[in-house]
Amino acid sequence: MSNKPLHLKACLSKEVYYHGEPIPVTVTINNSTDKTVKKIKVQVEQVTNVVLYSSDFYTKVVAAEEAQEKVQPNSSLTKTLTLLPLLANNRETKEIALDGKLKDEDTNLASSTIIKDGIDKTVMGILVSYKVKVKLTVPG
């Protein structure tokens, strides 16, 4: 790619978000390379860990946004993309964890599992967490 650095910083405005609440992700890119950043993609992934008999992980994208701006060589960009992970947008997605039944009106995507210190996570059965991922596309 290049001997010069490409710096990416992603910031959330707070630690905890609730059902139906938009998630603004502020992305700052400092492109010191001689390449152009062609695409900026931000997504929320639901990670489900089934710890009953073995530790199986299932990861599904539940919200995604893409920025149209390009970041030219030796330039910077700060952009906020807002994600809204909702069950309404994921009804056709297979293998996602829910709080309730899919046919019920008040069902949401599953809440994150919070485990207090000293609790054995294997007794929980299914652990759910979410992560925000930022991907940059740079040719060559």
From TrEMBL:
GO terms for cellular component: photoreceptor inner segment; photoreceptor outer segment. GO terms for molecular function: G protein-coupled receptor binding. Residues 2-140 form the Arrestin C-terminal-like domain. One of its GO terms (biological process) is signal transduction. It holds the Pfam family Arrestin_C. InterPro entries: Arrestin, Arrestin-like_C, Arrestin_C-like, Ig_E-set. Belongs to the arrestin family. This is S-antigen visual arrestin. It comes from Cyanoderma ruficeps (rufous-capped babbler).
